[in-house]
Amino acid sequence: MKFYNREKEIETLKNLQKDFRIAVIGRRRIGKTRLIEHTFDCITLFVPAEKTQKEIIRNWRSEYPEFHFPSVNTFKEFFEFAFFHLKNKIIFIDELQNLAKVESSYLFDLQRQIDKYKPKLIITGSLISSMKTIVEEYKSPLYGRFDIIIRLNELDFQTINDVCTDLKISVEDTIKLYSVFGGIPKYYELIEKLKKFDFFDFILDSFITYPKPLYEEVRTMLKEEFGSEHKMYFSILSAISQGKNRYSQIAGFVGKKQTSISKYMTALKQDFELIKREIPITESKKTGIYTITNNIFLFWFKNVWRYSELLETQNEKKVKKLLRTNIKKHISFGFEKICRNLIKKNLIDLKYDAVGKQWGKFKGEKGKNIYEFDICAINKDKKEILFGECKWKDNCNPGKIFQELKDKAGYVEWNKSNRREKFVIFAKSFSKKIKKNNLILYDLNDMKQIL
After folding, report:
1. What average pLDDT does the chain have?
2. What is the C-alpha separation between 344 and 340, in angstroms, rounded?
3. Considering the entire predicted model, what is its pTM?
4. How far apart are CA 286 and CA 413, in angstroms?
């Protein structure tokens, strides 16, 4: 598959001159190695976690015989040679955190070698928490040794739409795929190898049908990230994926006191960057809810790991039936996320300071006195507020939805007596298009035009 996007990162990297040290942090499959090798002519030294120093060095020597690396037993000896004799070459250590696993003391030696030789050095790492400790923590021997630290995030939906357009995939299927895989390019490369693409079959082959490669891959990836306490982290993420997204609900799900899960919640939010706290867009202090940030992890916990016992006992048929029932609701959440991001990125003719969701309570019968907006955005200077609905359905009645939005808008107190209200509705398709001064409609054809 051709190389997509990353223009900002490439520009940043190419602007570096002379000697430089670069760290790139990002999850697996996100394209770190490809970015570096696309931008630089470098010596790539991949570090597997399961081998000894000597075996890893032997593999490096066989991969680059032209540089005549010596037959040595330690990383310290190998890089002493590389940094001294290959000063004009860019050395790229791929998956640095594994190097620390194989020989933890070498990080101190690497610090001294960086200070001594000032090599052209690039390092990458996939374990977010470990890499933040190695590169960004003040007590780490490598703290302050890198000129630039790049946090490589997933590709945005617009770029994934470009990828899928080149793969001859419709906008509807692109939205479905993004709701599951997010912006991780490697998973879209798998589609390129298929003779025929069908969304649901692709999901089943990836996660459910033996050998279900992504079932194992995601589990292994997360267990490696979480280490010995992975069971507690898995339970918390399972709770959030199933809608138990308040502190008390999460604690109840895992069977612990709220105080007992606080360290895990903090780690998931700050160290692993897998969850975030959301509050209504018009509020600042209201108790929030927790959501999983990555589409693939949300999908995996909600629709795959949840049924792991069935999968482990080869009851694939039942899981497939459950997934067919549940997946539409999951895609609808992904659709909401895409629509909100279109507004955040100013890709449609709506400009707002803050974009998110809005929910709350109003006076009425308990259990029936809750309102929610899929989209809510505010412009403080103009005192303008936007209310929106996202419907992953065909032939939606815009007039009915518009009236419901207007009725619910009265429950939101933000500048209630002095504000301008606008409304937006996103849907797969509408039964008819209506025109109102304060209403904008977007179906899939409209979205295709602005992407």
Report:
1. 94
2. 6
3. 0.94
4. 14
CA distance 424 to 126: 39
403 contacts 309 by C-beta, under 8 angstroms: no
Range of the domain at 362: 342-450
Q: How many residues does the chain have?
A: 451
Do 174 and 214 lie in a common domain? yes
State whether 416 and 297 are in the same domain.
no
Helices (H), 243-359: 247-254, 258-266, 295-303, 308-312, 316-344
What pLDDT was estimated at residue 16? Answer: 84
Say if residues 92 and 43 touch (Cβ distance below 8 Å): yes
Q: pLDDT by residue (tens digit) across 383-440? A: 999 999 999 999 999 999 999 999 999 999 999 999 999 999 999 999 999 999 999 9
Residues 193 and 230 in one domain: yes
The answer to whether residues 229 and 261 touch, using CB atoms and an 8 Å cutoff, is no
Could you tell me if 128 and 270 lie in one domain?
no
Could you tell me where the DSSP H helices lie in 118-170? 128-136, 157-166
> 71, 65 in Cβ contact below 8 A?
no
Write the pLDDT tens digit of every residue in 299-318.
999 999 999 999 999 899 99
